[in-house]
Design goal:
The protein has about 525 residues and is mainly beta. The chain folds into two domains: about 270 residues, Neuraminidase (6 Propeller); about 230 residues, TolB, C-terminal domain (Neuraminidase), CATH 2.120.10. Helices cover about 0% and strands about 55% of the residues. The protein contains no helices and 46 strands. The strands form eleven sheets. Strands 1, 22, 23, 24, 45 and 46 form a six-stranded antiparallel beta sheet that branches. It has a four-stranded antiparallel beta sheet with strand order 2-3-4-5, with no helix packed on it. Strands 6-7-8-9 form a four-stranded antiparallel beta sheet, with no helix packed on it. β31 and β32 form a beta hairpin. The radius of gyration is 24 Å and the shape is globular. The N and C termini lie close together (about 10 Å).
Length: about 525
């Protein structure tokens, strides 16, 4: 397998390659604005084709002829609408409203298909349309499961079937499988039995022998590139690392693949609360703390690390010495939370194939599964140590006793995680992308709603404010008092990013997962026989 990097800005979010392999269009994200760029592969030239704007671009797709670019654009007036524009310049034209996937073209380029969710009816459908977006006609419909819907689908080169990721729910959890739909009669068949947490873009190989696609095996695993044979349904990996691969596109000959590789580098730093701008680095790895940091009562740090090739929990002194691995050969472990008495660590793990909340002793022994629902994540101890709060895959938040038992639903609408106030009276959780709600710990309606982003928030040690990462760049930590008053910036580490932070139990020190996030377009060739 051969890999070539096409961009080096670290700001790419999506990409597509033209059928002849001569051009690559990609999205550049500058925090609060996005723009479209085109690169001529042979001479390495980049040209901006859409200026920065307060929009989001998704689902980039070239028409089979290579003459047009299709993409989904989100803005406040037109959420998730499909646009078409000439590749070599011209005005963009809106074709379809209310679209929930990229488009995939029939072999002759005269039709395309896309997904549309209907939450009120609890359904998601494969919709067909002519290349100009009209008329729309449903091909197949399935029950819609709550969760992210934007994904891909792929029309076979013989024109007979469309493959799409269908999401299901049963006693073991929510999962996604690859399903084919026959164009002739709309009948459906599952291609293979493997369950995925999330499937992204799909593309057929030219000879029809299979598809390549991006997918996560579980919530805690990275998004990798996979191959599935057709019609046998045998699955194998193309990539196998801790990076994420998002967006996927093939040339007409299916000999070159373009994707966006998302690589994060993170180490743990320590700062005194009274001198936050003078932080000291205490780990020197690549993936430390990016998925969680938690202090013990005696001043040690539990953190996630990718040093073993998977995400595991580690324990160390606050100066970085005495590093000890706590979990091994047990899937990916994320979001640790240490009990108030220092006896236990709870965390999320996908060791069973589905993300659940687990508990271990502080030395890593006596692993015990606490939850067994449809997928649970982001645990947090209550200050009394008797309850563990966490997010539910169906939406909302619940709690379970420290020794396990039935889940008690606490909040119906929550996202992004839960944070329990130091006095144990309040729960903070995301309400929308730009608002955090504060609920009584018993649940019910929000006590207060704050206009701050839900991208990782934590209570300050005195319980008077919420500290949060600015989601536009991830480089600053700010606080806002819970009465909705004063907002204050605590620290700014530009150009570095902050992935996580956690105060020590006495409030005198702050641990940070600090590093960089780089998202760049890469070309992959000679991948078909990759094992």
């Amino acid at each position: 397998m051969k890999i070539a990097r096409l961009t080096s800005t670290g700001k790419a979010t999506a990409a597509a390659i033209s059928p002849d392999g001569k051009y690559v269009v990609h999205v550049v994200d500058d925090g609060d604005q996005q723009s479209l760029w085109m690169r001529q592969v042979s001479i390495s030239s980049n040209v901006q084709i859409s200026p920065p704007a307060d929009v989001s671009y998704l689902g980039l797709t070239f028409s089979p002829s290579g003459d047009y670019l299709y993409y989904i654009m989100w803005d406040k007036k037109n959420p998730y609408a499909l646009y078409q524009r000439p590749v070599l310049g011209g005005t963009a034209k809106k074709l379809v409203s209310d679209i929930d996937s990229n488009v995939t073209f029939s072999p002759d380029g005269k039709q395309f298909a896309f997904l549309r969710g209907n939450p009120s009816q609890g359904e998601v459908s494969v919709i067909l349309a002519n290349a100009d977006g009209t008329p729309e006609r449903p091909l197949a419909t399935r029950r819609m499961i709550p969760g992210p819907l934007i994904s891909g689908l792929a029309w076979s080169l013989d024109g007979k079937v469309i493959v799409w990721p269908a999401t299901y729910s049963d006693a073991s959890g929510i999962y996604t499988t690859l399903v084919e739909v026959q164009l002739a009669d709309g009948s459906q068949r599952t291609i293979n039995s493997q369950r995925w947490w999330r499937v992204g873009d799909l593309a057929w190989l030219r000879d029809g022998s299979g598809l390549v696609f991006t997918a996560r095996e579980s919530f805690a695993s990275p998004s990798q590139i996979w191959h599935v044979s057709y019609p046998e349904g045998q699955v194998r990996r193309i990539t196998n690392d801790l990076n994420d691969y998002v967006s996927l596109s093939l040339t007409a000959e299916s000999d070159v693949l373009v994707t966006v590789e998302s690589e994060r580098v993170s180490n743990i730093w320590i700062a005194r609360t009274d001198d936050l701008h003078r932080a000291s680095q205490i780990t020197y790895s690549k993936f430390d703390g990016v998925e969680g940091i938690s202090w013990t009562p005696d001043g040690k740090i539990v953190y996630t690390s990718g040093a073993s090739g998977k995400l595991d929990l580690w324990l160390m002194e606050a100066n970085g010495t005495g590093q000890k691995q706590l979990t091994a050969d047990a899937g990916n472990a994320r979001v640790p939370s240490v009990s108030p008495d220092g006896r236990y660590i709870v965390f999320m793990s996908d060791r069973t194939g589905t993300s659940h909340i687990w508990r271990i002793d502080i030395d890593g022994s006596d692993a015990r599964q606490l939850t067994n629902g449809n997928g649970e994540w982001a645990p947090a101890f209550a200050p009394n140590g008797q309850w563990v709060f966490y997010m539910l895959s169906s939406g909302g938040a619940g709690k379970v006793p420290i020794d396990g038992g039935d889940t008690i639903r606490v909040i119906d609408k929550a996202s992004g995680g839960v944070a329990i106030s130091p006095d144990g009276k309040w729960i903070a959780s995301g309400l929308t992308a730009t608002k955090i709600a504060i609920y009584p710990v018993e649940g019910g309606e929000p006590h207060r709603i704050l206009d701050i982003p839900r991208f990782y928030a934590s209570w300050t040690p005195d319980g008077r404010a919420l500290a949060y990462l600015d989601k536009r760049d991830g480089s600053t930590i700010s606080t806002q008092t819970i009465d909705g008053g004063t907002t204050k910036q605590l620290m700014d580490f530009k150009p570095d990013r902050i992935f996580r932070f956690s105060w020590s139990r006495d409030g005198k020190q702050l641990a940070l997962a600090r590093g960089s996030s780089s998202n760049d377009v890469i070309l992959i060739s000679n991948f078909k026989n990759q094992q």
